[in-house]
Every structure is written in C-alpha cells, then in structure tokens.
Amino acid sequence: MTRLIVAAGGGGDAVAAAMLDAALYGDGGRAVILTYAWDRLLIDPVPGPRGADNFTGLIQLTPAVWTVPATARPIAPAGSTLPRLAAELPHTFALIDPHHGAEGITRQLEDLVRHLSPASIDLLDVGGDILARGDEPTLKSPLADALTLAACCQVNASIRLLVAGPGLDGELPVDGLRPLFGKLVHTFTPQDVERISPVLEWHPSEATAMLAATARGVRGVCEVRDAGLPVPLTDEGPTVHEVDLDEALNRNQLARATMATTSLVEAERYCREICGHSEIDYEREKAARLGRPTSRKLDTETVLAQLTEFEAKAHSRGATHTTFRHITEALNLNGTQRDELRQFLISSRPEQYEAPLWRVAAGA
C-alpha cells in the first residue's frame, strides 16, 4: 500500500522524507511525498513558492494535485529542484500549491487521501520550526510550515507529526523543543544517509545537509544561511521524534490564524501580523538587492584568499563547519556559481570535505 509523507516546509524536508521512508520501510520508495516547490533564491530567483502553472510537463494525479516527474520543467525565470529529485529518487513527488491558502492545501490532502487510501500519513519537519509560537526572535521562515500544519489538522485522517534533526534549521533552540517530544521514532545512521547521498552532493538544503552529517557522526558548530547562524551539531541531530499534532497547532498561532485562508496573500498578511515579518517579503527585498544572477567563471586565486579570511573569522566565532550555501554567500558569489565553487574547493582541499559539509580549517 502507498504511504503519504507531507514535507512541511518543502525544500530539504522532501529529501529528508525520502531518507525517512527508506529508513523505516526500505522497500524502494513506495511513498508519495507532497511538497512545496520553494527553493529560495539560490535555485529560484523568483521570490515565493511555485504553483502548478509555473511548470510544464506536470502529471495530474487528482483534480487538485499534480505530480512532478523528471521530465517536468519550471518556466523561466523560475527554478526548482523537484524534477531532478524525481529523476534521482524512486518516490513520487506531488506539488503543494499554497496559492489558495490553507483551504486549498486541505483540498489537496483530501484528494490524495481519497485517491491513494494511504497506509500511513506523516507530516515531517526538519528542525522543528513547525512548533514555533510565532513570536520567537530567531524564527525566519514560519509560513510554509504553518500552512501545512493548518491543512493537516483539518483533514479527516490520522496524521503523525514528526520532527527530525531538532534545532538544525537554526530557527528554534532545541532546549525549547525537547519538552514537546513524544516517542523517539528513529535515529538516522550512516547507512540511511547513503540512500540519498548522491542528492546531497547538489541539493542546497542546509538543514538536511546537517541532518545527514550528524547521522554520519559529525559534531561541532555549523554556520548557515546568509547571516551565518551558528547551529550545534550534537547527538540529537540525527533523531526523529513524534509530536502531538493538536499540541503543535495549539502552540502555532500562525497555523491557527491561517486555517480558513483562501489565498497566499491572505496567509502572508497573517504572517506579518503575528510574526512581524514574512519570509516572502525578505526574499523580495533580497532579490531586488541582488538583481538577476549572472553566470561568470570563478577567479580561483581570489576565492582561496577570500576563503582563508572567511575561515579565520568563522573559526574565531567557534564554527567548526559550514555549508556550501553559506560559503557562496559569504564570498559574495551568486547561486549560479555554487556548484563550481563546491567542486573547486573539494578538489583543491579534499581533507576539509566532511560530506555534505565543509570543515572550517582550524589554522586558517
């Protein structure tokens, strides 16, 4: 029978969902993973999430749900990691379209439940920001998680909420999350990571990269995002915990407020009112500041000099590791150069590559 996993925040949550499905069931990917096409500006220069009308080649699964096959393509200038995920993983990826608010996502879920009659439904969030109240000063991207939580709580089906890698999204301290955890569902192992390791070589998700790294035994402090947030890499990193769905909804003010929303614009308005900001506004401002990314060849000599300076400062801040996304932004490079930068650094200093993270040189 088919399983359904809802990737709460899209992006890396979808990769983690594939890893969890294989770890728990190990039968080659019988799960349908429902996820956003929301890849942030490194991949998609257009702010906000993509809907079905932003792709060609989608396959209609139900009246409200479209799947993203390997042959699908985002319509320029938009970008998406979903077609490549579909090409490299055995799972079926279905598209969450939030442009009709939580009510629209609820209809999509109800459609899938009727169509699939899934043996299980899991709502998966990497990091735990789905448990945010909304007023936390460190909360950066609450909207996607809140909308999926709001929708899942309105579906007439049994849904299990799982939090993987507590604190690894750099948004909520793990000490505040720990009292909410129910039973330990799984602890990822190096063998679990091997199933998705080819994807981690190119996928830009930082939280899922740290989830995989901690499963492989990496410990320390990792700097992430454009702001260089420090994220502890601990023994809790590779764990997956069950959380009561109703308790999560009772905590999450934004999820409760958006339950009856019928548009993304309406949901975003609630996000500004409750959280004080909207992550899409942040993407709009950043996209306007950076302009359209242009592809240009790396100046490797300059890169190595800048990297040495960056690592010295990062080490002085206590960082032991970082992500290639953070290095890209710290060196003022654009998203089109991330892959080239990564390949160059790994080839020139392979001893610092602790897949999929970069180890900060202590003597820089």
Key descriptive features of the protein:
alpha/beta; seven-stranded mixed beta sheet; 40% helix; five-stranded mixed beta sheet; 16 helices; 364 residues
Summarize the entry for a quick read.
The chain is of the alpha/beta class and 364 residues long. It contains 16 helices and 16 strands. The chain has a seven-stranded mixed beta sheet with strand order 7-2-1-8-9-13-10, with helices on both faces. A five-stranded mixed beta sheet has the order 12-11-14-16-15. The protein has a two-stranded antiparallel ribbon with strand order 3-6.
Average pLDDT score: 95
SS element count, helices: 16
- Please count the beta strands (DSSP E, at least 2 residues each): 16
- Rg calc: 19 Å
Strand order of the largest sheet: 7-2-1-8-9-13-10
Commentary on this structure:
The N and C termini lie far apart (53 Å). Helices cover 40% and strands 17% of the residues. The protein has helices at residues 12-24, 40-43, 82-88, 101-116, 143-152, 174-177, 190-194, 197-200, 206-215, 245-251, 253-257, 264-275, 279-290, 300-316, 324-330, 338-348; strands spanning 3-7, 31-36, 55-56, 59-60, 66-67, 73-74, 92-96, 121-126, 160-164, 184-187, 220-224, 229-233, 239-243, 321-322, 353-354, 357-359. It contains 16 helices and 16 strands. It is of the alpha/beta class.
